[in-house]
Specification:
Elements (H helix, E strand, L loop, with lengths): L2 H17 L4 H7 L5 H15 L14 H27 L6 H13 L2 H18 L6 H7 L1 H17 L5 H13 L2 E2 L4 E2 L4 E3 L5 E2 L4 E2 L4 E3 L3 E3 L17 E2 L4 E2 L4 E3 L4 E2 L4 E2 L4 E2 L8 E2 L7 E6 L2 E3 L10 E3 L1
Parallel strand pairs: 1-4, 2-5, 3-6, 4-7, 5-8, 6-9, 7-10, 8-11, 9-12, 10-13, 12-14
Antiparallel strand pairs: 15-16, 15-17
Length: about 325
């Protein structure tokens, strides 16, 4: 045996020791987890259902939208039930009748597709009505990252409500990786939701958002503190945003007891940790700009300025 082969053998033995017994039975159990590619395929099929006629299905050749829709629904049922059975097995000690249970959950989810489509249609309209840069509905559906992140959240949220582990979070993290928008599947979002631009938005698990809410890039709807760790699980940690609220870029709204009242406007870069009454407008005082004239390494006051050379300090 060469020195390289011996080194590889030693490393494998050490790693095997870290894993413990990796007999065939345990090996299968260890790696019996949901498949990321399958989860993404499921999302793509659901997107084709919700936006029927917008996204081609190259693997299905049919003459009518009805037949196309039927085949897409069957595809989602087959793939999703398999993935749900996998996560149920990994989370449960009782592995009997998991396939049947997974199918029942899948069918319960499929029945919620009409609700998902209804909400997404309202989101598309909100984006068109609220963005003068939008020239068509098609442009929004094909290109707006905020709509995509919202769509994924609405799908994942329904699975979350059905107590499906892992899969909803895998879906929203896929959207996060594509858009820079991080929405936990537990977040509850009302109709006519519009994310403008979107990069850097974070919306926490127990956030509740009402109807007709608009938020801009860099907004955080987060927890005031997570030092309690697992002891905070299932507790309201994130804010409630009521109807018709606008939140401008860079604002942070934190805390489970924080409520932003109807028709409120939260200005850019505001840091909010307490409730805001309905109709209020929140803004931070503008930082004053200090204008100093720089000449021969001497900083003079603006009273002594005699030309147009400036040094700006914010």
């Amino acid at each position: 045996m060469s020195s390289i082969e011996k080194s590889i053998c030693d490393i494998v033995n050490e790693l095997q020791g870290d894993f413990g017994d990796i007999s065939d039975k345990n090996y299968i159990k260890i790696f019996n987890h949901p498949d990321k590619d399958s989860i993404i395929d499921i999302l793509k099929s659901i997107r084709k259902i919700v936006f029927l006629g917008y996204f081609r299905n190259s693997s299905i050749k049919v003459c009518t939208l009805r037949n196309n829709l039927s085949m897409l629904v069957e595809d989602v049922i087959y793939k999703l039930s398999k993935q749900i059975a996998v996560v149920l097995e990994s989370e449960s000690e009782n592995c009997t009748d998991l396939s049947e249970k997974a199918m029942q959950i899948t069918l319960a989810f499929i029945k919620r597709l009409r609700k998902i489509k209804e909400y997404i249609d309202s989101d598309v309209q909100a984006a068109y009505d609220g963005d003068p840069a939008a020239y068509s509905i098609d442009e929004i559906i094909y290109s707006y990252p905020g709509l995509f992140a919202t769509f994924v959240n609405r799908v994942a949220h329904e699975l979350y409500l059905l107590d499906i582990p892992i899969i909803p979070r895998m879906m929203t993290e896929y959207a996060h990786s594509r858009t820079g928008i991080d929405i936990h599947p537990g977040a509850s979002i009302g109709r006519n939701f519009f994310i403008d631009h979107g990069t850097g938005i974070v919306i926490g698990e127990t956030t509740v958002i009402g109807d007709n809410v608009k938020i801009y890039q860099g907004v955080t709807l987060g927890a005031l503190s997570t030092r309690g760790g697992q002891m905070l699980k299932n507790k309201k940690r994130h804010p409630t945003i009521e109807d018709n609220v606008t939140i401008y870029s860079g604002a942070s709204i934190l805390g489970g007891n924080t409520l932003i009242g109807k028709n409120a406007v939260i200005g850019g870069n505001a840091f909010v940790t307490h409730s805001i009454p309905a109709g209020a407008k929140v803004s931070i005082e503008s930082n004053e700009l200090r204008y100093d004239y720089v000449s021969d390494k001497v900083v003079k006051t603006k009273d002594s300025i005699d030309d147009d050379k400036w040094f700006y300090i914010i």
